[in-house]
Amino acid sequence: MARWRLPRWPRRFAYPIAGLALSLAMVAGLLVLEASTAHHAPTISWISGELRTRPLAYAYLLVATLAMMTILGWIVGRKEDLLGRLSTTDPLTGLANRRRLRGAFADELNRAARYDTPLSLLLVDLDRLKDINDRHGHADGDRALQLVAEALRRTCRATDLAARYGGDEFVVLAVNTPATEARVLALRIRAAVRRLSRRAGRWTKTSEPINHTVSIGTADLHAAALPTFDALHAAADRALYAAKEAGRDGVMVAPPRARGGRRFKVGASVAAVTRPGDR
Fold first, then answer.
1. Mean pLDDT split into 10-residue runs, the chain, 279 residues
2. What are the backbone angles phi and psi of residue 166, rounded to the nearest 5°?
3. Which of 168, 230, 237, 278 is catalytic?
4. Can 249 be counted among the known catalytic residues?
């Protein structure tokens, strides 16, 4: 049985609303205290009479507490929202970080198991980042990582989650996506990185433009040894390694697991994903 949960409002809105409720509670508490002191039951007619007798005092209490609680609630809530974003966002690229990715994977794995829907993982690795850092400096290396992040933002769907997993490795969690569709998404990502790299090269001030490329390995749950993040990541990592071994700037799909194991057919797979007509 599904549990009902309160909506997750941003705290900068939720806290002022809670402040409004507390302000009203302050006025109600004072009315109850006045009623008990005067030995009257706090009926509606008595409350109306009390408010007409002392309107300024109750109005001041309501307005003062409301202003204080809403302003403080907005300030504190805004800071908590910012801390929440920082705890789940990679500071360099603005993508999700590893913590958010793993949390999202747990939710999507439960949904995939419940509704029998496919789930894929894409490992996107920036080619030759160490060479870029050594030859052009770490600033250009950071810009290369930001370029890949921008390519992911432009190509991933609203249901996908793109994250920087660490170093030069990015991960895309593709929801309701089998391996065949994940390959199409990977090809779009690769093409977007090429396009953005060419565009950035036109504006570079150096005499040696950098042609950025990515290698991508993809896997769905059928390729994983177990229905866990680590197993699915390992399957996609094997595909990524095969793409690197085949010469980089390519896409490789992990095959479904079978008894006795299966090995990558590197030549045929890479030829299929690197021909110019691919989209």
1. 51 84 88 86 86 89 89 85 76 92 94 94 94 88 94 95 94 96 96 92 60 95 94 96 94 82 40 40
2. 150, 140
3. 168
4. no
